[in-house]
Specification:
Radius of gyration: 28 Å
Mean pLDDT: 89
Oligomer: single chain
Helix content: 25-40%
Structural class: alpha+beta
Number of strands: 34
Low-confidence stretches: 1-21, 475-483
Strand content: 15-25%
Shape: globular
Distance between the termini: 51 Å
Strand order of the largest sheet: 17-16-15-18-19-22-23-24-25-14-26
Number of helices: 22
């Protein structure tokens, strides 16, 4: 049926009100969750309150309320839950282990930085039902395609707008829905769409009528324009039409016809079109909304890099003050910090060790009011979660403030808890002339700490000193006695390829340093070296590991920009993973490639000793190859509402930022669009000259324009320039926390051209 003067290109029947989990009637666990259960919500040893929990009929929402709260209740979406841990697997549940058995306890782990939910069921059977049921729902959600996610999203909105829960919507409810969905539409136009969708002429929309209304609302004129440009008959893309589009726009070079057939097979919903080897508009839309049509190249998603080079040839995803959940003065210390960092692909975590009571070393931010946790609990968490998302080595960066006696206890815990995972000697039994590779060290945990003597002495049996040089981390610890600290031989023996040393100068390091020695710098010292001797810094990092960490003045756990440290080839750029923002967006963006394994191979000019690269003067590089990046920002789809006021609608603008060597640092913005967060259209082109493409990161930021105050953040997406697909692409936006916010997206056209 025609609307907006365009024939509706959808020819597919939708059943919107699908259950999230088909076969729900046969699933006893889900049936039990639908009935609900009284469980205890646990926040501490003393805070244990009963709540009534149940799964709502949409199989997407968990509803809960207090017995005393009258009608007040809370909900959260199953999509907010990342995992279910059974038993006493959180500090809170461990603290009440003597009171409630493990088989009645479980933890819901939320995405992003939201606190976990610790629960105790009335019986082991009830706990089992919830554990299995939730896991089933999470698994089902993870297997959803983009189209199903969109259907689910529509269904969620329908429920929110259907205030009287009668399964239908009158025009007033539809008007409220439009405001909730960020749509500013005049009443006349909205009523026209409503009447066209109301096939039954009942004055309300139900089921399929609402789907039709949504389709009319979300008609993609921008995509239709591209489709019709390449379609010979305006109705479909023949195989040769699609082939032409893929060559001209998407710059697909090899086996194009084979690839076109593959796309039809994967994304075309019409069997009739498939028989004709053709793609309808609906199939075209599904392809552009898929992983194949996204801005991030699918070829770069898995591990695609050479993993057999020395450790110092990789950027390594690294966390600072990993034990902290908040700020550095009064924040909570928790083993959860380690679990979250490791599950995000982090490969270097920090452990700040101090003498504790009863001979047990503790971990906390010394001389502050942050809470304390046991060293052995940290080691257990690392041992358990180190290789859940990546097989490549984990580095435990130890800041050691312990007495010799408690250092011995640390060594015992490391050996006893980690066993064979802990690397205790060089791989070939000899002093190394180069560092081993991530591939060589798969499944191993390495200790980075001070060591008595060097590896050479340990092989010749000549080590005898029980003191260690203070390292740069010590220099930055308050009240640290700068005289040499006594070290325990047992802990020293656990240090193999990562001996913490104090940095003297690049010249001294070139002549005297060993490949297994690691220097640490505050962000300020690293910047100073970068300014004064950029080329030497890059060269130093082609041979040895360097760690850079935030200044101690960042008591709010804020982050510095990691890019300038990567520009110098620094591998272990330690960030506060607990703090959302630009620093972590760049970190997540860089490490989203290569299987999210936590290791990214540095460009060849940063690995080869004979190459000289100065980040301040990239044009001097042998093999200098600048490019022009053209980004046409076409449109946005279903941007989230940022202002909770009911009448407020987003005025979106898109800022594109280039993070790279100093001459590449740049940002440009589109216009802002008045009152349309639902389907804003820009067609604005932004152009950037990029001198060092191999180091450039591209960050797309959507903001809600405000002429009187700071713009509000709406969403962002960051990726390396080298992982970008060209042509027409969708960008699925992430929240401030780095979690996905489907179906919010941008539609862009990308073109990268050489300048030489």
């Amino acid at each position: 049926m025609p609307y907006n003067g365009v024939k509706a290109p959808f020819d597919r029947d939708y059943d919107l009100f699908f259950p999230l989990f088909s076969g729900i009637a046969e699933d006893d666990n889900l049936q039990s969750m639908l009935v609900g259960a009284v469980m205890r919500k646990i926040k501490s040893r003393t805070w244990k309150k009963q709540r009534y929990f149940k799964l709502e009929d949409d199989c997407m929402t968990i509803w809960y309320k207090s017995k005393k709260a009258g009608n007040a209740h809370s909900t959260f979406s199953v999509s907010d839950v990342e995992a279910i841990r059974e038993g006493h697997q959180s500090e809170v549940l461990l603290s009440i282990a003597d009171e409630f058995p493990a088989e009645r306890c479980f933890t819901m782990v939320f995405r992003g930085r939201r606190a976990n939910l610790d629960l105790v069921a009335e019986s082991a059977e009830e706990a089992e039902s919830w554990i299995r049921g939730m896991r089933k729902l999470i698994e089902n959600l993870e297997n959803m395609g983009e189209r199903e996610k969109l259907d689910q999203w529509i269904w969620d909105w329908f429920k929110k707008a259907d205030k009287n829960n009668d399964g239908r919507m009158n025009f007033k409810e539809v008007q409220n829905l439009l405001k909730m969905m960020n749509v500013d539409m005049n009443e006349q136009h909205a009523h026209r769409l409503f009447t066209m969708a109301d096939k039954s002429q009942s004055g309300t929309l139900e089921d399929d009528e609402f789907v039709l209304f949504y389709k009319m609302l979300t008609q993609r004129e921008d995509v239709l324009r591209v489709f019709q440009r390449y379609s010979a008959d305006g109705q479909k893309l023949s195989l040769s039409d699609l082939d032409h589009f893929l060559r001209e726009e998407q710059l697909v070079g090899d086996n194009v016809q084979q690839y076109a057939k593959q796309l039809i097979e994967l994304y075309e919903p019409s069997d009739r079109a498939k028989l004709l080897n053709a793609m309808t508009f609906d199939g075209f839309l599904m392809y552009l909304g898929s992983a194949e049509g996204s801005i991030f190249s699918p070829q770069r998603r898995g591990v695609y890099q050479d993993m057999s080079q020395p450790l110092c040839h990789y950027f390594i995803s690294s966390s600072h003050n990993t034990y902290l959940m908040e700020d550095q003065l009064r924040g909570q210390s928790s083993v959860e910090g380690y679990i979250r960092a490791l599950k995000r692909g982090c490969r270097c975590v920090e452990v700040d060790c101090w003498d504790g009571a009863n001979g047990e070393p503790i971990v906390y931010h010394g001389h502050t009011f942050t809470s304390k946790i046991l060293f052995k609990d940290v080691v257990s968490a690392v041992g358990k979660y180190a290789f859940k998302v990546s097989d490549y080595p984990v580095i435990l960066s130890i800041e050691n403030h312990c007495s010799v006696e408690q250092q011995r206890v640390m060594a015992q815990h490391l050996n006893h808890i980690l066993g064979d995972k802990l690397l205790k000697s060089t791989l070939d039994g000899k002093a190394p002339i180069r560092l081993p590779s991530p591939e060589d060290l798969k499944g191993k945990i390495l200790l980075k700490a001070k060591k008595i003597g060097g590896l050479e002495e340990s092989f010749s049996g000549t080590e005898d000193s029980l003191t260690g040089e203070p390292s740069d981390e010590d220099e930055n610890s308050r009240n640290f006695d700068k005289s040499k600290q006594r070290l325990s031989k047992e802990l020293s023996d656990c240090v193999v390829y990562c001996k913490s040393v104090r940095f003297n100068s690049f010249k001294h390091a070139r002549i005297h340093s060993k490949v297994y020695e690691v220097a640490s710098f505050t962000e300020y010292k690293a910047r100073k070296h970068l300014r004064e001797a950029g080329t030497e810094f890059v060269l130093h990092n082609s041979r040895q590991l360097t760690r850079v960490y935030p200044s101690g003045f960042r008591t709010d756990s804020s982050n510095f920009g990691p890019q300038e440290m990567w520009n110098a080839g620094c591998q272990i750029v330690a960030l506060n993973f607990q703090t959302a923002g630009e620093g972590m967006d760049l970190n997540d963006g860089l490490f989203s490639q290569n299987g999210r394994c936590g290791y990214v191979l540095k460009p060849s000019f940063m690995r080869e000793v004979e190459k000289t690269f100065d980040p301040e003067m990239p044009q001097k590089l042998d093999g200098y190859n600048p490019v022009m990046l053209n980004i046409q920002v076409i449109s946005g789809q279903q941007l989230p509402k940022v202002n909770i006021k009911e009448d407020s609608i987003v005025d979106p603008l898109v800022r594109v930022e280039i993070h790279g060597v100093p001459t590449d640092q740049a940002k440009q913005e589109t216009r802002y669009i008045d009152n349309n967060g639902f389907n804003p259209v820009w067609y604005d082109t932004l152009r950037f000259t990029i001198h060092t493409p191999d180091l450039a990161m591209v960050r797309f930021v959507v903001e809600d324009y405000d002429k009187t105050s700071k713009n509000d953040f709406v969403g962002q997406y960051t990726l390396p320039l080298t992982c970008m697909q060209q042509g027409y692409r969708h960008i699925y936006l992430l929240s401030k926390d780095g979690t996905s916010i489907p179906p919010s997206s941008l539609f862009v056209h990308i073109r990268i051209t050489g300048l030489k």
